[in-house]
Amino acid sequence: MPKPNRWWIVKPAVFLACLGPTLWLVYLTLTDGLGANPFEKIIKFTGDWTLRLLLITLAITPVRRITGITSLTRVRRMIGLFAFFQALSHVSAYLADKEFFWDEILKDVTQRLFIISGMIALLLMLPLAATSTKRWIVRLGGSRWQALHRLIYLSGIAGVIHYYLNEKSDILDRYVYIAILVVLLGVRVWHAWRGKRGRGGGPLDAAPLS
User: Fold this and answer.
1) What is the reported pLDDT for 202?
2) Dihedral sign, CA of 46, 185, 66, 179?
3) List of the chain residues with pLDDT < 50
4) Are the C-beta atoms of 21 and 45 separated by less than 8 Å?
5) Measured distance CA(111)–CA(105) in Å, rounded
6) Which long-range contacts (CB under 8 A, 24 or more apart) does 119-123 make?
7) Do residues 175 and 127 touch, judged by C-beta distance below 8 A?
8) How far apart are CA 63 and CA 171, in angstroms?
9) How many Cα neighbours within 13 Å face the side chain of 127?
10) pLDDT for the residue numbered 55
11) Is-contact 152 181, C-beta < 8 A?
């Protein structure tokens, strides 16, 4: 007897979970729950969730390899796009807080390291979001598409640097995010090394990198 397909439940559940932070932010906005400096609250909130969703996206492949649940890849793209949406919201709130004074914004982008690292993280996410559809996978070819989407690791590094340099109050969180990223990158390096050994005729089987 075939097993029931539960993904009709899982995918909407993941969608709602990813949408949850935005719905909560809307609720806070409508109920005057953002405090005396609403833009500061929104900037921090969306920045935190950008990094969280980005790291969750990076964790999908290692978890899939460890657990053998290949179906996890079905929600990876969705989570990645929500991370990009939060990043856009983060930047939009920053621009609104600066009242779109472009001279001041340009000074930040060129002189403040935490702003520079944040912009790098966003720019690296742009081609990933733009090529996230199946049509682009076909146009680029599987190997080139995978190579392009490994930029997410560089985006994750830039995002953690941005958070580390900017966060002043939650000192512990800075090191938690660094530790998570180091583990995820370490798993990736280990798997790549393992795959090379397998392809080189060693005792381990080769495996795709993503």
Assistant:
1) 42
2) negative
3) 1-2, 201-210
4) yes
5) 10
6) 120/155, 120/158, 121/87, 121/155, 121/156, 121/158, 121/159, 121/162, 122/87, 122/88, 122/91
7) no
8) 27
9) 15
10) 96
11) no
